[in-house]
Design a protein that fits this description.
Order of helices and strands: HEHHEEHHEHHEEHHH
Largest sheet: 4 strands, antiparallel
CATH superfamily of the largest domain: Outer membrane efflux proteins (OEP)
Number of strands: 6
Number of helices: 10
Structural class: alpha+beta
Distance between the termini: 30 Å
CATH class of the largest domain: Mainly Alpha
Number of domains: 2
Strand content: 5-15%
Radius of gyration: 37 Å
CATH topology of the largest domain: Outer membrane efflux proteins (OEP)
Helix content: 55-70%
CATH architecture of the largest domain: Up-down Bundle
Shape: elongated
Length: 432
């Protein structure tokens, strides 16, 4: 079963690499679709799952001495003198023997350590999955924000082009100074430069998202236009810190490493304990090898018993290795304390960033609403003949500039929310 899982993961990784050689394309996805694809074919996740399979296989390898193994062969040979073979056993037509460890405490601890390694690999995979979910969600929001900003910048550039044309007309009629035409032309050039920069930002964001999904580097993933409710963030900062410490895969991984080292120490200390192995053998003898030396011949011969090994002098290496492992555990305890402090500080900072980002978004929204109201007033005055069209187009360009600022502020607030949920370990559940 484990071999089938490993083969499936290898096949999935091969398909991902084959997809990279396919022709470039642009796919439109929702956030949920992007997350589902990332969880199925993100290269980092596939590698982490392969590490899990390796850890499971290691359990089988370390447990191998406790599994019975049977060997069969033949010791038939021409002999001269007393019947004997090079190995010291009697010549036989067929020989079968089994080898199995019954009691080996150091090896038992190594098996337990390998099982703990499986748990640690699962924690590592979960940690990698959290990172992938956050990265994909962030890149998706980047692509979404870049597309919205590009549309607003294009509208702003169009309004400024109309302002430039109207200004040029007024200059030719002598109602404006020539410098006003140069100012309008400069504004158009700056707007076009901004559009070009945002176009490149959009390409880079969509390409980065495609790479995070395990696609071809020439492919792009476009964020689908959808109504998406903002993710809920826990109100209580202290409860969030407690939850973050409880759900932290970093802490779980460190604790798993400590447990693994503890089992390793027990394995070293158990080197002084006796070891018991099963001894079983069957031999089928040929009469011609023995008739001249023994009064009675028995063709079927078997031995069953146990070999016991008592370590009398094991040297100083096990004690030194145990000391090394104890030092590693001490380092891991310090790392646990430092990680807990860092998680607490990072989460407090994440809440501060969220508060700052939401405040900036409220200001940007109020600024945008004011610009829209001013545009409405300008349109009404233009209809009454009290305001020229050029002023209205300038107001439209200003409104689009406010839209750009609002999109930036909204994007920052969404990223701040994702960061808070990532710190608490609840991001994937919130997005699903």
């Amino acid at each position: 079963m484990e071999t089938m899982k490993l083969s499936a993961l290898v096949l999935m990784l091969s398909l991902s690499l084959s997809a990279m050689r396919a022709s470039a394309e642009i796919k439109t996805m929702t956030l949920r679709q992007a997350l589902e694809m990332a969880l199925s074919q993100n290269p980092d996740l596939l590698l982490a799952r392969l590490d899990q399979e390796k850890a499971r296989s290691r359990v089988t390898i370390v447990h191998e001495p406790f599994a019975p193994k049977v060997y069969a062969g033949s010791g038939a040979a021409w002999t001269t003198g007393f019947p004997n073979t090079i190995e010291g056993s009697a010549p036989s037509i067929v020989q079968a023997r089994t080898v199995m460890t019954i009691f080996n405490r150091p090896q038992s601890y190594l098996v337990a350590q390998a099982n703990e390694g499986v748990r640690g690999a699962a924690i590592q995979a979960a940690l990698r999955q959290q990172e992938v979910v956050y990265r994909v969600a962030s890149l998706f929001l980047d692509a979404e924000q870049a597309a919205r900003s590009l549309e607003a910048a294009q509208r702003q550039a169009e309004s400024l082009v109309r302002v430039r044309d109207l200004t040029g007309q007024r200059v030719s009629e002598g109602r404006e100074l020539p410098i006003e035409s140069k100012k309008a032309n400069l504004a158009v050039l700056r707007a076009n430069q901004h559009v070009d920069a945002l176009s490149l930002d959009l390409i880079n964001a969509e390409t980065s998202l495609a790479l995070a999904l395990g696609m071809n580097p020439d492919d792009r993933v476009r964020a689908a236009v959808e109504e998406r409710a903002p993710v809920d963030v826990p109100v209580s900062e202290e409860d969030s810190i407690e939850r973050a410490l409880e759900n932290s895969n970093e802490l779980k991984n460190l604790e798993s490493s400590m447990q693994s080292k503890t089992l390793e120490i027990k394995s070293y200390k158990a080197e002084r304990l006796p070891k018991v192995n099963l001894v079983a053998q069957y031999s089928l003898f040929a009469k011609y090898n023995y008739q001249d030396y023994f009064a009675k011949f028995q063709p079927n011969n078997a031995q069953l018993g146990a070999s016991i090994e008592f370590p009398l002098l094991v040297g100083r290496a096990p004690s030194a290795q145990a000391s090394q492992a104890e030092a590693e555990i001490a380092k891991l305890r310090i790392e646990v304390s430092r990680t807990r402090a860092r998680i607490t500080a990072d989460l407090r900072r994440a809440y501060q960033d969220l508060k700052r980002a939401e405040s900036s978004r409220e200001v940007a929204r109020a600024d945008l609403d004011l610009a829209r109201e001013e545009l409405t007033i300008d349109l009404a005055q233009m209809d009454e003949g009290r305001l020229p069209l050029a002023k209205v187009e300038e107001a439209r360009a200003t409104e689009n500039e406010k839209w750009l600022a609002y999109y930036d502020a909204q994007h920052a607030a969404e990223i701040a929310r994702l960061n808070v949920l990532r710190q608490t370990g609840t991001l994937e559940a919130a997005l699903r």
